[in-house]
Design goal:
The protein has 233 residues and is an alpha/beta fold. It is built from eight helices and eight strands, in the order βαβαβαβαββαβααβα. The chain is globular, with a radius of gyration of 17 Å.
Length: 233
């Protein structure tokens, strides 16, 4: 895998994964090895063969028993911080096949050419941003409070490692992504957004009552995070 050059900084990809054995193998095999130094898969309490699929593909496998997207990301960050040579850039990628590996180059371009510190992938569907009502609500609240207009809160993102450490991330649940964006605004980071493909996640199914409840809880946590950070110093 790639080790980085002055023009192309070293990149480690972090993939939080929970019960993703059916999709993770295809994701890992499609990532462009020449652009990546290492892939870190965080098994977030899976009950299937997620960890073994990751090992078979040559990824570094970490375990985080506390379920939560942010908890998995924090576990990866703790691992990267103690490496003899941390990466220059960290990319956060989905395990379910909803992110297109071909978008990695697009995501990294503002960092390599324009010295961006945080790049957010704006999910597109049929040439238009794909934002549900909950995302639009959160984006509107961020704009009102922080005076910064984001186009999306998408999970596909790249951030310089030094900037990630400086943010002091703490959210262990679904508020991780919005916490990163809010803190990046407050810290004055150079932020860019680029269009990326939004694909149907593997194993997509009709949502049931439990899915709707989980989605509502997730939205509540995101909105709480936005309001909480507005009062934090």
């Amino acid at each position: 895998m790639a080790h980085g050059t002055p023009d192309r900084p070293s990149v480690d990809v972090v993939i939080p994964a929970r019960d993703a054995a059916s999709t993770l193998g295809a994701v890992l095999s499609a990532l462009p090895a020449r652009r990546i130094r290492s892939i870190v898969v965080v098994d977030n309490g899976s009950r299937d063969g997620t960890a073994q699929v990751a090992r078979d593909a040559g990824a570094v496998v970490l375990r985080e028993s506390r379920v939560g997207y942010g908890a998995a990301c924090l576990r990866a960050l703790a691992h990267l911080e103690v490496l003899p040579r941390p990466p220059a850039v960290v990319v956060f990628f989905a395990a379910d096949g909803s992110d297109d590996p071909a978008d990695l180059a697009t995501l990294l371009e503002p960092i390599e050419r324009d010295n961006a510190e945080l790049v957010i992938g704006v999910r597109q569907s049929e040439g238009r941003p794909r934002r549900g009502p909950r995302t639009r609500m959160a984006l509107g609240l961020i704009n009102t409070i922080y005076r910064h207009r984001f186009e999306d809160l998408g999970p596909l993102r790249a951030i310089r490692f030094a900037a990630l450490v400086a943010l002091g991330m703490s959210d262990r649940s679904d508020g991780w992504k919005v916490e990163m964006q809010i803190k990046a605004v407050k810290l004055g980071l150079h932020i860019a957004e680029v269009p990326v493909v939004c694909r149907t996640a593997g194993g997509d199914r009709r949502p049931g009552a439990r899915d709707v409840l989980d989605s509502a809880r997730s939205t509540g946590r995101v909105l709480f995070r936005i309001l909480r950070d507005a009062t934090a110093r």
